[in-house]
Amino acid sequence: MPYPIRLPIGSPAPLESIHHPTHTTWELEMHHGVDNRINHEFIDEVFLKALDLVERDWRSSTSEVGAPGALIIVGQKSQQKFFSNGLDYEGISKGPGFFTNYFDVWIRRLIDFPMPIIAAINGHCFAAAFVLALACDYRVMTSGKAWCCLNELEVGAPLRPSVATLLNYKFPSPKIVRDATLDARRFTPQELHALGVIDVLADGGTDGLAEAKAPRAKTGVYGLMRTDMMKDVFNATKLDERRILAVDAAALARRQLDL
């Protein structure tokens, strides 16, 4: 399979590129506009297809149940400012079912992907992008000026059950979950590294982490084990959509209080 592969295939303005930098590593580089906003097209036509292409290439390399392999997800390397700025709220609001039919499907696919996934956070990482990074197995982050933040509180967006479950699984304590969600705290790379959320601070690349973890996929059970360990998160992605917006909650409270 010739690399790089640019998606959508044939598009004059591709949103993501697949690279194969070493025999055992693949890299998805996001370059959706200035800050890699996430919407229907980006998930369905680009990201999920990229995961399928990587897995197909990986499985075709062996007749065994598995082979060494690791996947790196990185923001546009030519600017090194944004890993991703989260959801394209204007785009996803144009049609129903985004979270049930796209977002949760995306998280589920990351969980059952058959090889280690490393998020190379090379810039600011906000909201859904932070969720993407947390859904990965390992996180490498620049030591420079960059924040990770779940700012849903500030934009009035309730958490998905899948996201809330993921945060409780990945963050080291209820206090950090509280700070991240109910305070919308902006974490520096150094703070997250001290908490164990970031595995490595490195300015460029993954500091050899992807190559070191690639042999873990050889036995073919990596994705199965991850799915078992993250069963609560995986199952939460299948829950019916619950969209109680702030305006709805306020209206209900006013009725109950006779206001």
From TrEMBL:
PROSITE patterns (UniProt xref): ENOYL_COA_HYDRATASE (PS00166)
Highest rank taxon of the organism: Eukaryota
Database matches in CDD domains: crotonase-like (cd06558)
Xref: InterPro entries: ClpP/crotonase-like_dom_sf, Enoyl-CoA_hyd/isom_CS, Enoyl-CoA_hydra/iso
Any one GO molecular function term: delta(3)-delta(2)-enoyl-CoA isomerase activity
Leader peptide range in chain numbering: none
GO term, biological process aspect, one: fatty acid beta-oxidation
GO cellular component: peroxisome
Short name of one Pfam family: ECH_1
Family the UniProt entry places it in: Belongs to the enoyl-CoA hydratase/isomerase family.
Protein name: ClpP/crotonase
Species this protein is from: Hydnum rufescens UP504
The organism's taxonomic lineage, starting at the top: Eukaryota, Fungi, Dikarya, Basidiomycota, Agaricomycotina
